UniProtKB/TrEMBL annotation:
It comes from Domibacillus antri. Residues 347-683 form the Penicillin-binding protein transpeptidase domain. It is an enzyme of class 3 (hydrolase). It is a single-pass membrane protein. This is serine-type D-Ala-D-Ala carboxypeptidase.
Length: 717
């Protein structure tokens, strides 16, 4: 036992010694290695640290595309060769000029953007001695004595450069200047487009081959917006800033806070602006490795970018194009017929009354430019211009009478000329002297003014006394406007586009109580064509004011440019408000609208009576003083706006429409039914296209693409 214990005690110290020895060797090796790094290679590593710096920058990606509801491309991106320049953080002007001179030998660069100031600056740089001679000895002495600043001396030189001096600049030098100008226009560490228009394959290849001798220059692929339908709906689609414009000055801080670069292209107006966050995409993140002077030594991609999400519009471009053509033809025909010098525009908005989807929003403006007549796109006018709409709004007056409790559905009111002291008689167009009772539906069918006048008088607490005065509670204006607002008249519709107008409210004057009667027949306040479409949709769908929208879906981008990606977001129908109606109230107005289009005495039956789709409608004519663009030359000229609202089929509405033609004629002698002609042809075209698409299988390209996507997914699974 004693021997065993003794043997165990001598074994433990041996293991410990071995462990200490190994640790000693490792520690010695570590010290040796640190010595090499610190003493032998320390200066090299220090130089590398001082030489390089990592800077992360973003590069733009193509914007999302825009399709119509059937999958037709509306706005696309066209790739184009581009040459860029990335300016260093601390740029060397001489090196930049040298690079510009080299690049000028490899590419053609337009000089049309070069300014006189650019030329003067360049001339001074190229002719230092001559520039110095532009300043007198006395002025140089003043400079030496700090009586003139360096900037003041430079300004003197600029002022004294003559046209003859500038003529010394050769075409080659101006080309160098144009390139140098692009170099200096950029922001530090951000690629600046030097040329992206008409870059030839030869230029692209030659520059690519010489990048090593062109510090800061690179070749890449840029893009520009392409419009498949030329000017169709162009004003609504909006536009984007160019690579030269970059961020709008008034919104620079807003965009910079959202990770934009100063020369990024952004949506400037309407659809492109409204959906900027969707269309912009995810930028490519690049890491630029620079030296301490800020010169780029190398670049590498940190994360790949992705082009913006795509928009699918509610608009049917086939219908849009057809309706625009109809407007052009009818507007042109009216202008050629003579006697309509002030008629210059027409609008049509067609929408699904159940969802608020805009199916077509067309507008045209007739202009003479350089002696040539042109029809310009003015689709925006549907939401940015407003007019007196006339009798088209009488459906709102009837329902306001119900909702305020002054009238009952089916109530008869005597239609008769109303005679007030000191004014001309106010009557309905079909009854200049008689007196007979008419119902609410008859009043709509025949477009009775008196029925509306008496309704407004009841709301205002007035009693009609022949040849007496008219005393009205002026609060009635606010009351009627409040109810009209519930239909969308006089308030913004909520469409997903910026800069929508709410219309104009006539000035309420206690000395003019009769203006309330004008209000009741649509001849006091003004409304936009889009508001008129929302109003008639509210009647068509049973009392729900739907928010109109022009974007149907947001889709994920696909790598295959010919495919539409899966749905990222669907724009769902939104009810803004619901009319507080008793059962049967709105049906009275719907019946009145049906009689307008289909009964023999209806004011639109001559145009829609034989329509196979069973139309419901309301016509309108508003008389007033011309307030258009030529008002300085036509002061106090009376004109008539003509309008039409409607929907079909009347018993199951799927499309609602508003037609507005301002200043259609200047006297009853040259009146034209342009609103009826446009409305009938537009509705015919809607149902014609619907029948055509029903014969095509599948119904639309988006459905077809989704079927293909689903099959591909199932195959991969």
């Amino acid at each position: 036992m004693k021997k065993a214990n003794k043997k165990k005690k001598t074994h433990v110290p041996f293991r410990m010694n071995m462990l200490f020895f190994i640790v000693f060797l490792l520690f010695s090796a570590l010290i040796f290695r640190l010595g090499i790094v610190q003493i032998v290679q320390g200066e090299d590593y220090q130089r590398k640290i001082e030489r390089t710096e990592d800077i992360t920058v973003n590069t733009s990606v193509p914007r999302g595309k825009i399709f119509d509801r059937n999958g037709q491309i509306v706005v696309d991106n066209v790739p184009q060769n581009a040459i860029t320049y990335t300016r260093a953080k601390s740029p060397d002007a001489d090196e930049m000029m040298e690079t510009a001179e080299k690049l000028a030998q490899l590419i053609e660069k337009e000089t049309d953007q070069v300014t006189e100031r650019d030329k003067k600056d360049f001339w001074i740089r190229k002719n230092e001695e001559k520039a110095k001679a532009k300043v007198t000895d006395e002025e140089w002495a003043a400079y030496e004595n700090d009586e003139l600043s360096e900037d003041e001396i430079y300004d003197l030189q600029l002022d004294r450069i003559t046209e003859e001096d500038l003529s010394e600049l050769t075409a080659e030098e101006l080309e160098v200047l144009a390139i140098y100008r692009e170099f200096t226009a950029g922001y530090a560490m951000t690629p600046q487009i030097v040329k992206n228009q008409n870059v030839t394959d030869v230029e692209y290849a030659v520059v690519s081959e010489n990048l090593s001798s062109l510090p800061g220059v690179n070749t890449t692929t840029d893009w520009e917006r392409a419009y498949a339908f030329d000017s169709t709906l162009k004003t609504v689609l909006g536009n984007i800033s160019s690579s030269k414009e970059g961020l709008p000055k008034e919104m620079v801080d807003y965009y910079l806070a959202r990770d934009y670069s100063r020369n990024d292209r952004v949506g400037k107006s309407y659809l492109e602006y409204q959906y900027e966050d969707v269309l912009r995409g995810q930028k490519t993140k690049m890491k630029n490795i620079t030296d301490k002077s800020g010169n780029v030594l190398d670049s590498e991609i940190i994360t790949e970018g992705q082009r913006g999400h795509d928009l699918v519009l509610t608009v049917d471009m086939d219908l849009q194009i057809a309706v625009e053509k109809i407007i052009e033809e009818e507007l042109g025909k009216a202008k050629r017929s003579g006697g309509h010098p002030l008629l210059d525009r027409a609008f049509v908005t067609m929408m699904d009354p159940n969802t608020g989807e805009i199916l077509a929003m067309a507008g045209k403006k007739y202009e003479i430019n350089d002696g040539k007549a042109e029809m310009l796109d003015f689709a925006l006018g549907n939401m940015t211009t407003s007019y007196a709409m006339g009798s088209a709004v009488k459906g709102a007056t009837i329902l306001t009478g119900y909702m305020t409790g002054v009238n009952e559905p089916g109530e008869y009111i005597v239609d008769e000329p109303l005679r007030f002291a000191g004014t001309s008689p106010k009557s309905s167009w079909f009854n200049r002297g008689g007196a007979f009772g008419i119902s609410d539906t008859y009043a709509l069918m025949r477009s009775s003014n008196v029925y509306m006048f008496k309704t407004a008088m009841k709301i205002g607490g007035a009693n009609y006394v022949p040849n007496g005065g008219l005393r009205i509670d002026m609060e009635a204006f606010s009351t009627m406007r409040k109810y009209f607002n519930q239909f969308g008249l006089g308030v913004k519709t909520g469409i997903d586009l910026p800069n929508e107008q709410a219309g104009y409210q006539g000035i309420v004057d206690p000395r003019e109580p009769g203006k309330l009667l004008d209000f009741s027949i649509g001849q006091f306040d003004t409304y936009t064509p889009l508001q008129l479409a929302q109003y008639v949709s509210t009647i068509a769908n049973g009392g729900y004011r739907m928010e109109p929208h022009i974007v149907k879906e947001i889709r994920q981008p696909m790598s295959d440019a010919n495919k539409i990606g899966p749905v990222a977001e669907e724009i769902r129908p939104k009810v803004l408000n619901t009319l507080d109606l008793e059962p049967g109230w709105i049906e009275r107005v719907q019946e009145g609208f049906r009689l307008v289009a289909q009964a023999s005495q209806g004011t639109a039956s001559g145009y829609f009576g034989d329509a196979p789709y069973k139309m419901a409608a309301k016509t309108g004519t508003a008389e007033g003083v011309y307030d258009g663009p030529l008002r300085e030359n036509y002061k106090n000229q009376m004109t008539w706006n003509v309008t039409l609202v409607g929907y079909a089929p009347y018993d199951n509405p799927e499309v609602a429409m508003a037609v507005v033609v301002p200043w259609a004629y200047q006297s009853s002698a040259n009146s034209i039914p342009i609103n009826h002609n446009i409305g009938r042809r537009a509705m015919d075209k809607y149902f014609e296209l619907k029948a055509q698409k029903a014969k095509e299988k599948p119904a639309d390209a988006i459905v077809e693409q989704e079927i293909l996507n689903k099959k591909e997914t199932e195959t991969e699974s």
